[in-house]
Design a protein that fits this description.
Elements: E1 17-22, H1 26-41, E2 45-47, E3 55-60, H2 65-81, E4 85-89, H3 95-101, E5 107-108, H4 114-124, H5 139-144, E6 148-149, E7 153-154, E8 161-165, E9 167-168, H6 179-183, E10 187-188, H7 191-203, E11 208-212, E12 227-230, E13 233-236, H8 239-246, E14 252-255, H9 268-272, E15 279-285, H10 289-295, H11 301-314, E16 319-326, H12 333-346, E17 350-355, H13 373-396, E18 402-411, E19 414-418, E20 430-432, E21 445-453, E22 458-462, E23 471-472
Parallel strand pairs: 1-2, 1-3, 3-4, 4-5, 8-11, 11-14, 15-16, 16-17, 20-22
Antiparallel strand pairs: 6-7, 9-10, 12-13, 18-19, 18-21, 19-20, 21-22, 21-23
Helix pairs in contact: 7-8, 12-13
């Protein structure tokens, strides 16, 4: 009887591999997370190197010229190392700029255009799975997918914090900014959608939510502040309603890109009650009413200091960070001195400043009386020197206190974390000198006794039981 021969085993289907480069702000990072999630849902494998990828997607930034250069350089590097590149993001709104520098890119799409990105990927590298039987990764695969959170998708941040984008676009037409031409007018997400996403993030292990948008204070104006239901309660689609809902989740919630409109007053009591972190990221940009008018900023300078001082009476622990532009066209020495006086009086905790540079397509380029580059840099140095003094003095007041800290990383013998006053990547850190010895881990809360400070960071050790609970379960 002849021996049976078994049929040859079919070779395993090779998953198509995608390399991904994400540039730009936290809003763009959320776009990257959504694209990557869809890629994984469709069976694509995300790889960390050019040589392992079949195609590379580059999510670009196009806000200022330095960001444009960085994006073009990243595209060029991907082309040199891989050869097959799809471009998306803000710079995708200027395809002629990309094609002029890199005519060989496979496709170009704009920001938030997830369908076009996926279409370009499909054209260059068709998915290999059966869409009728494999629409979603299996639960077992999901557990192995680092960064995947059930019901939300892939996160590019460390597992213990996440950006929560509440809207797209912006209704303002600031003369130095081209964001509306890149991302369109304000489109707010329904508040119940945002709260459900936040709830799933928390269930997935996130301990800090960072609320981002182009204008967080304007949230819901396009939806006429419509009420939506979540957890058997109605919440208005507006900043105060969203803040009340997020305050029910029991995690750190940090508000970014908040314009100082009067209704922001409504969220300060929630910070005083511990429902939100006592932290506001206010992009003030200047303090001279004349320059703010040239910038076409939506907030009145004379009200900014008054409002900040009133907020601090309600919530003394309030941390305020802001960004400013020096050397804007037409800025006189008197205008700049007015900005310095404001910084001195407001005692802002965290400040970033930039010397004005023209942005292609911005109306500010047409303004008269440009400030010479040397004078811009001189003013920037004076501004940052003053702010360094203010920051060092404010941080020195925290020496001898105990601060609740969220640990981000272990670096040798140190644990690197952040207090309530510190947003990731843009603010300072708390360096815990005995962090490794005390077995602190990323994503863990701990009470830290502050022993020292400089103009940026705090230094300390795990607090003893006599001063406060030494370790908090996160």
């Amino acid at each position: 009887m002849p021996a049976k021969t078994l049929p040859a085993k079919a070779p395993p289907i090779r998953s198509p591999k995608i390399g991904f480069v994400s540039l730009g702000c936290p809003k763009a990072l959320v776009d990257s997370e959504r694209i990557l999630t869809q890629l994984k849902v469709e069976g694509y494998q995300i790889v960390p190197s050019y040589d392992r990828a079949d195609v590379v997607v580059v999510n670009t930034c196009g806000f200022i010229e330095s960001a444009v250069k960085e994006s073009l350089d990243a595209i060029g590097e991907a082309l040199a190392e891989n050869g097959k590149v799809i471009v998306t993001g803000c710079l995708g709104k200027r395809p002629e700029t990309i094609r002029e520098a890199h005519p060989e890119v496979l496709a170009i799409t704009g920001p938030q255009d997830y369908a076009s990105v996926m279409g370009a990927v499909h054209a260059a590298l068709p998915p290999r799975h059966d869409p009728f039987t494999d629409l979603l990764p299996s639960p077992r695969r999901r557990k192995k997918d680092e960064g995947m959170i059930e019901g939300v998708g892939l996160k590019l941040t460390p597992r213990h914090y996440a950006y929560l984008k509440i809207s797209e676009g912006c209704n303002h037409r600031c003369s130095f900014c081209i964001i509306p031409s890149l991302r369109g007018d304000l489109v707010s997400r329904p508040v119940d959608d945002v709260l459900r996403e936040a709830e799933k993030l928390v269930m997935g292990g996130v301990k800090e939510l960072l609320v981002v948008s182009q204008d967080t204070s304007a949230y819901g104006v396009d939806a006429q502040y419509a009420a939506r239901r979540w957890r058997d309660r109605d919440y208005a689609t507006r900043l105060s309603g969203l803040a009340r809902g997020l305050g029910e989740l029991g995690v750190w919630t940090r508000l970014h890109y908040v314009y100082p409109y009067p209704h922001v007053d409504e969220v300060i009591p929630l910070m005083a009650e511990g429902k939100l972190l006592p932290y506001l990221d206010l992009p003030l940009q200047h303090a001279s009413p004349r320059i703010l008018k040239l910038m076409k900023r939506p907030a009145a300078a004379e009200k900014q200091l008054e409002r900040i001082l009133r907020w601090r009476t309600i919530c003394p622990e309030l941390t305020i960070r802001s960004t400013f532009i020096v050397g804007f066209p037409g800025e006189t020495e008197a205008d700049f001195e007015q900005l310095l006086d404001f910084i001195d009086a407001a005692e802002l905790d965290r400040v970033g400043a930039f010397a004005y540079s023209p942005v292609a397509g911005a109306r500010a380029n047409e303004l008269p009386d440009p400030v010479p580059e040397s004078l811009k840099q001189e003013r920037l140095a004076r501004f940052m020197a003053l702010q360094a003094e203010i920051s060092a003095e404010k941080l020195a007041r925290k020496v001898g206190t105990v601060q609740k800290v969220l640990i981000d990383a272990i670096d040798g013998e140190l644990a690197i974390g952040r207090s309530m006053a510190d947003a990731p990547e843009i603010d300072g850190t708390v360096q815990v000198q005995d962090g490794a010895a005390r077995r602190l881990k990323p994503g863990q809360f701990a009470d830290i006794a502050i022993l020292g400070a400089d103009e940026h960071d705090l230094y300390g050790r795990l607090a003893t039981s006599g001063s406060k609970a030494a370790n908090l379960e996160g």
